[in-house]
């Protein structure tokens, strides 16, 4: 019985027709699997493109509404967010473009400059300040109010000083009317590690304040005078912008910061209010239209994806899913 079964099995394996049939079935199964994989691949690609399209739609979903509102009485909003540096979203070129658009719209009843910045370049801040003063003189019937969000310090406050009035939240950080220059020194560490610094310069002070050499008293004094001059320019801008509203104390221009509530008492801020409150109660145009220049579509998409990923990581770390 066993010998018969063994012969039958061996015969089937040696049968050319059976072998061809097996090869055909294996090939068909492989093709079926490849088709299935391709279909799933196409599905996921379409799903990915659909998700990107959805993000783009969500990104610009308020565009038509804002265009419509811009032809009606409204408050124009320009947002200065982040460090004030050339080429950044808070750089002078971007903010000035938004301010000009706001002032030139005949339906804008007033302009709100929302500031959330720790400061940055004195030059970029000065450009924005000067342009605000120019636009206010050119359009005397259109007021501009600065509204400080979380922070309006240093260059952020420098810009705010050009406004007709400044508002903040009671917990906003305001002030830091000062100038700084950071550096470090590694002279003693180099001595301990046996490191030799080699430096070639043309000009006695070309290596000004180099971290690889001891502080030169003459160079330090020169830089302190330079910082003092920039600080004096900052103080003059604040005095010019705030006028008699300032209640000067020895600490006012020392670089200290205050809460929005404290800043009201010092005359650095005129009152406590949000953007919506200023639009509704001061400008009397409740509809707010954001005219802050945006980056290109690709830049906006990358920014939003970056924000989404950052938020997701923060939630995961804090266990805040759901």
Please explain how this structure is put together.
With 322 residues, the protein is an alpha/beta fold. The chain has eleven helices and eight strands. The chain has helices spanning 2-14, 16-59, 63-69, 92-104, 122-138, 155-160, 187-193, 217-242, 260-266, 275-283, 297-318; strands at 74-81, 108-117, 144-153, 165-168, 173-175, 257-259, 271-272, 288-290. Strands 1, 2, 3, 4, 5, 6, 7 and 8 form an eight-stranded mixed sheet that branches. Strand 2 (108-117), helix 5 (122-138) and strand 3 (144-153) form a beta-alpha-beta unit. The longest helix is centred in the first third of the chain and has 44 residues, at 16-59. The N and C termini lie far apart (67 Å). Residues 296-322 have low confidence and may be disordered.
Q: Can you tell me the overall shape?
A: flat
- The assigned structural class equals alpha/beta
Rg, nearest Å: 33 Å
Series of H and E elements: HHHEHEHEHEEHHEHEHEH
Features:
322 residues; eight-stranded mixed sheet; 8 strands; disordered C terminus
What's the SSE blueprint?
Elements: H1 2-14, H2 16-59, H3 63-69, E1 74-81, H4 92-104, E2 108-117, H5 122-138, E3 144-153, H6 155-160, E4 165-168, E5 173-175, H7 187-193, H8 217-242, E6 257-259, H9 260-266, E7 271-272, H10 275-283, E8 288-290, H11 297-318
Parallel strand pairs: 1-2, 1-8, 2-3, 3-4, 3-5, 4-7
Antiparallel strand pairs: 5-6
Helix pairs in contact: 4-5
In short:
With 322 residues, this protein is an alpha/beta fold.
């Amino acid at each position: 019985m066993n010998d018969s079964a063994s012969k039958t099995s061996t015969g089937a394996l040696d049968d050319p027709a059976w072998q061809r049939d097996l090869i055909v079935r294996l090939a068909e199964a492989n093709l079926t699997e490849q088709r299935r994989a391709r279909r799933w691949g196409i599905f996921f690609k379409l799903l990915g493109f659909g998700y990107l399209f959805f993000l783009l739609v969500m990104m610009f979903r308020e565009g038509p509404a804002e265009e419509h509102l811009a032809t009606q009485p409204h408050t124009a909003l320009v947002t200065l967010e982040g460090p004030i540096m050339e080429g950044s979203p808070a750089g002078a070129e971007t903010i000035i473009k938004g301010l000009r658009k706001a002032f030139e719209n005949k339906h804008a009843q007033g302009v709100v400059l929302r500031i959330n910045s720790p400061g940055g370049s004195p030059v970029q801040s000065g450009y924005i300040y000067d342009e605000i003063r120019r636009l206010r003189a050119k359009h005397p019937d259109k007021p501009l109010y600065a509204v400080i969000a979380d922070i309006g310090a240093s260059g952020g406050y420098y810009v705010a000083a050009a406004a007709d009035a400044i508002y903040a939240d009671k917990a906003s950080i305001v002030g830091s009317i000062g100038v700084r220059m950071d550096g470090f020194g590694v002279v003693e560490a180099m001595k301990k590690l046996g490191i030799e610094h080699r430096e070639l310069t043309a000009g006695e002070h070309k290596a000004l304040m180099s971290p690889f050499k001891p502080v030169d008293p003459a160079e330090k004094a020169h830089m302190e005078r330079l910082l003092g001059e920039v600080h004096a320019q900052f103080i003059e801008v604040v005095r010019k912008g705030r006028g008699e509203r300032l209640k000067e104390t020895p600490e006012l221009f020392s670089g200290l910061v205050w809460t929005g509530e404290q800043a009201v008492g010092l005359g650095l801020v005129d009152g406590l209010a949000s953007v919506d409150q200023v639009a509704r109660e001061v400008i009397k145009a409740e509809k707010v239209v954001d005219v802050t220049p945006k980056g290109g579509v690709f830049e906006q998409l990358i920014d939003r994806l970056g924000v989404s990923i950052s938020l997701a990581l923060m939630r995961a770390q804090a266990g805040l899913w759901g």
